[in-house]
Input
Amino acid sequence: MAILALFCLLSGCESKTKTAPEPGIIAASAELPDKPLRIVSLAPNITEILFALGAGERVVAVTRFCDFPTEVKELPKIGGVVDPDVENIAAQRPDLVIGVTSGGDPGVTRALDTLEIPYAFLKMETLEETFQGILTISKLVGAEASGKSLHDDMRARIEKITARKSPHQHKTLVVFGHKPIVGAGPGTFAHDLIELAGGQNVLADYPQAYPTLDIETVIKLNPDRILDITMQEEGSADFWAPFEKIEAVHSGNVYRSADPALMRPGPRLVESLQIFGMAIHGKHTAH
Output
């Protein structure tokens, strides 16, 4: 108890006043601070949002996958998205921990509750959930004006891009991994970006958000565009070369990028949409 009391004194437990849940929050502590001063981010997209909101100076620790903006590389690391180190988190004396439900472990929230560390986990899988997440996070950190500005600017830029999209819809497959092949199905931000960019997601009717596919299934789906955003350490540059039966491979319309921004529902989604549009309506060879 003495340790908990000391922790609360150092982390500012007395400032916890908010109790009403915000839209998009799936799990949260009973009380949240009005304006947290020491924030730990448990996901790269959360980190990017916090910095885009102008709250970067209050971020005291991030995951080992957080690499943007460049200044986060110097911050203490508290583990990964799915395996955060709670003791390391506590050592940062945070007054708010923000994460995403896709990486949320119930054991983490229980441990944070025990330590009386305020937390909020958000669902940010689709484009609309991302927009709502930006607004909610801005409220959590006391930067509502910045949140509305970021939200409105992203929507306006996306509307401008989609107004110019080609009417021709190419059958498109977005791939996140090779071993196994993991595709982007419905209920994902990648699915939304395919449609906004003027493509037709070949996995639109799948029941899973991120289905695992064998190569025979991909051949049967026969996309004429493949956007492969498998990370370099997990994929091979010539992975698709042997599969000329797939129209995208045969026609040279495989676009490969290891840019992690393409896997993050956050402020750089507008740039991701531009890349999706280029991949769907341009001509590319796997490289």
In short: The mean pLDDT is 88. Residues 165-281 form a domain with the Rossmann fold fold (CATH 3.40.50.1980). The longest strand covers residues 170-178.
